[in-house]
Amino acid sequence: ESVINKIAAGEIIIQPANALKEMLENSIDAKSTMIEILVKDGGMKLLQITDNGHGINKVDLGLLCERFATSKISKFEDLENIATYGFRGEALASISHISRLSVVTKTSESPLAYKAYYVNGKMCNANFKESGDSSIEPKPIAGKDGTQIVVEDLFYNIPSRLKALKSKSDEFGKILDVIGRYAIHTGHVGFSCKKYGESLQVLSTRPGVPIRERIRTVYGTSIASELLDIELDGSLAYNKDKHNGNENENENESICHTLGLIKVSGVITNANYNNKKRVQPIFFINHRLVSCDPLKRAINSVYQFFLPKGNYPFMYLSLEIDPKNLDVNIHPTKREVRFLNEDEIIELIVDKVHSILSSVDT
Ligand code: ADP
Ligand code: MG
Question: How many angstroms separate the CA atoms of 154 and 23, rounded?
């Protein structure tokens, strides 16, 4: 069973940045306003995330790293209305199968913080040896409100995974990229990132600063000064043809009723911005970092009408759509997202981008 769990975990978490993304989302879900990240050796040696969120109750620590242990769904219908990032309770479980994981956490109701260690999904002693001893208890210690998760020796038990990783600095680059994207999208939270043993922060944003300032912090002044706002409140018309393969009348109807509204907000670079470097677009859908190649390709092709050859746009878009229109079967850790009425959604956005770029004097 442990081998299967290990393999499964290795498919969900394939590089340190994947583990970090899961933990960032958990900290954001926990209503944190400050998240500090410490990284050693590209995250392979150490990934430490410290937040000031609501913490975890002592009684919940025993099962924290069990698969499907989640505090985020209480009933099945909730699956259709997932407001929080995570909903499957698999991330910490997976990470605990392929690393040495420890947690220090304190809720505001508790006078003390508690520390617990995990290996292979189970709470264990401080030596990270599986003991089968069910009497292990979290240790009371002094601490601040919030949660600190420490992941050490990621992939120590999957040598092939470790070998497949890029250099420490490449892996660190991917970690920074993920933090930067969350820092841009999640403006009510401050993020900071340091390398272990160095006092200088590699990235640092304060909570509550405007979008352009966040982009300046992460991507530099040149991009930040060339941005146009994009705001869109649209509604999706139901296209019968797309769904007529569906035999079930009721289901058909429910799709029809739920298509409803789409909200898009973000910033895109103007057509005067000379940028020779490809920057991956930043897309969030319902506050989850995703990639969506069809959307990216469509917007890039609009820019081809405006940008001189060899220049690339930058875009950050936050889409909010009814969760019923998202394919929940896509694994939460998979970045590529699918939604119903994709063509229509893309068309709405592309039209908007086109009209924004056209309306600006060049
Ligand atoms: P999910 O996020 O899908 O519920 P995870 O494995 O990512 O599953 O996390 C399991 C549970 O651990 C969460 O549901 C949450 O209750 C708790 N948790 C994890 N990280 C934090 C954190 N930083 N602050 C508070 N609770 C947390
Ligand atoms: Mg999670």
Answer: 14
What's the confidence (pLDDT) of residue 278? 84
And the tokens for 279?
């920057």
Residue 122 domain flag: yes
* Residue 339 DSSP one-character state: B
Domain coverage including residue 247: 221-359
Distance CA(1)–CA(156), nearest Å, equals: 18
Tokens matching residue 136: 């292990």
Q: Ligand 2 is a single-atom ion; what residues have CB below 5 A from it?
A: 26, 86, 91
31, 119: one domain: yes
Q: Is 337 in the pocket of ligand 1 (CB under 6 A)?
A: no
Residue pair 49/19 in contact (Cβ under 8 Å)? The answer is no
Please check whether residues 109 and 129 belong to one and the same domain. Answer: yes
Q: Which atom of ligand 1 is nearest to 94's Cα?
A: 6
ipTM > 0.95? yes
Token pair in block for residue 231: 């705001």
